[in-house]
Amino acid sequence: MSLKLAVIIGSVREGRFAPTVANWFVEEAARHGQFEIDLIDLAEADLPLALPAVSPAMDPNPERPAGMTDLSSRLGEADAFVILTPDYNRSYPAALKAAIDWHFTQWDSKAIGFVGYSGASGGLLAIEHLRQVFNELNAHTVRNYVSFPRYYLLFDAEGKLLDPTEPAAAAQSMLDQLHWWASALAAARSVPAAA
Ligand SMILES: Cc1cc2nc3c(=O)[nH]c(=O)nc-3n(C[C@H](O)[C@H](O)[C@H](O)COP(=O)(O)O)c2cc1C
Q1: What region holds the NADPH-dependent FMN reductase-like domain (predicted)?
Q2: Ligand 1: centre distance to CA 194 (Å)
């Protein structure tokens, strides 16, 4: 059975560039051929910033808004994630933090990769912050990543990369690592966890 990869669009703002990056990456993931791909757009979920009264470590399955149900079940079904993130003030978008914080078991013992894009820093500042966050959630972030510094110079008006070779190689090597870790963690999840 193939592993399930949820590709998460982390930007929800009007006029966002994110769908261009998402379309490119989903094609790369399909070309990789080893995952069943689910593209998740956080703009389609209800993601309030006001969180439940009790922390997720104490109550990992709180009552969630009806508009989050679909998101929660798709996150739960995934074996691995690739998060697409821009840098917002040297970090990642608030909608992404809300999606992370509303969930807990959905991230546990799963593999996570990143595609970043922005100005000079190419999403790397957001990615480094996300690595810290996912440590707390007992997820494994893979070493390899894709970064698009000055993304606005790299894609044409139809959303195609002007020079696709290097980004494609970066995406494939990240997906290879992700698949290795996702396979190992899927097997590990079937045995009882350490306390
Ligand atoms: C609130 C905000 C903060 C930003 N901060 C940064 C930043 O720190 N570094 C950077 O290179 N670009 C920054 N940008 C530029 C974004 O990387 C750029 O607008 C990109 O298109 C955002 O992705 P999106 O269009 O998918 O939302 C910022 C943009 C916004 C809206």
Answers
A1: 4-150
A2: 40
